[in-house]
Amino acid sequence: MVQYSQPNLDAAFAALSDATRRGVLEQLGQAEASITELADRFQMTLTGMKKHVVVLEQAGLVTTEKIGRVRTCRLGARRLEEEAAWIESYRQLWAARFDDLDTVLEDMKRREKTNG
Amino acid sequence: MVQYSQPNLDAAFAALSDATRRGVLEQLGQAEASITELADRFQMTLTGMKKHVVVLEQAGLVTTEKIGRVRTCRLGARRLEEEAAWIESYRQLWAARFDDLDTVLEDMKRREKTNG
DNA sequence: TATACACTGAACCAAATGGTTCAGTATTCG
DNA sequence: CGAATACTGAACCATTTGGTTCAGTGTATA
């Protein structure tokens, strides 16, 4: 059984629970951006966007670097592996309780192949 | 491109951002339980646990049924499919930005097989 | 050098969160 | 019937959240 880091999961899921922050992550997946650009795109004050970026940064989902007067934001080191794993194992549990055995076994085989 | 329901994602991720609630889900994956049993197991007042259950219920992750004086909680209809999909597509984005092309392609092939 | 620009920090605000206690109501059991 | 059980709702509380404005600081530019 995998052991999950509760504080990490807490911070990551909380960071993902806001549509603006999910939007920022999707944006940064396309291209890096400054706080001003993000604030502009999500129709928010600079200060407001800064707070979201801080939340994402603390969750490890974003890193930032300030050069001159511009702070550039990029995707961070966290790749949501633990979170994906938690959700997948939950889905297994769910399936085991509600699906017929065939479906569960198929699912397990599929996962085995994927993980091997 | 898949379209995500922001309110659903908001509610589900917020529900998952609390360790107690994740614990309740894991518990209910093993066996259904009453509010009293859950409150007991997670060392919390009945009222406190009730609130968590309401949050999970509103996110669609738990359903409850009151028979006599006991309210029984079970896993709900929501199987975190959208949430898993969001995270997976994020992971793709992430990989595309940071990994070498081989890794990305391998990952895409893997996903194709899994989804087929 | 003066001005505009990008960000930052403090203060404030309303609403939500995560918990509690206390006072019920309804149900079961002896 | 009377007592114990299981939950419910209201009220309260401290903290966090998601946003704002306002007053800076530091950097680039005309």
Features:
116 residues; DNA-binding; Arc Repressor Mutant, subunit A; 3 strands; homodimer
Description:
2 copies of one chain form a homodimer. Chain A has 6 helices and 3 strands; from the N terminus they run H-H-E-H-H-E-E-H-H. Chain A is an alpha+beta fold and 116 residues long. The first copy, chain A, folds into 2 domains: 6-75, Arc Repressor Mutant, subunit A; 81-115. A 3-stranded antiparallel sheet of chain A has the order 1-3-2. In chain A, a hairpin with a 2-residue loop joins strand 2 (62-67) and strand 3 (70-75). In chain A, helix 3 (35-41) packs across helix 4 (46-58). The two termini of chain A are 17 Å apart. The A-B interface holds A 6, 9-10, 13-14, 16-19, 22, 25-26, 29-30, 75, 79-81, 83-84, 86-88, 90-91, 93-98, 110, 113-114 and B 6, 9-10, 13-14, 16-19, 22, 25-26, 29-30, 75, 79-81, 83-84, 86-88, 90-91, 93-98, 110, 113-114. Chain A binds a DNA duplex (30 and 30 nucleotides) through helix 4.
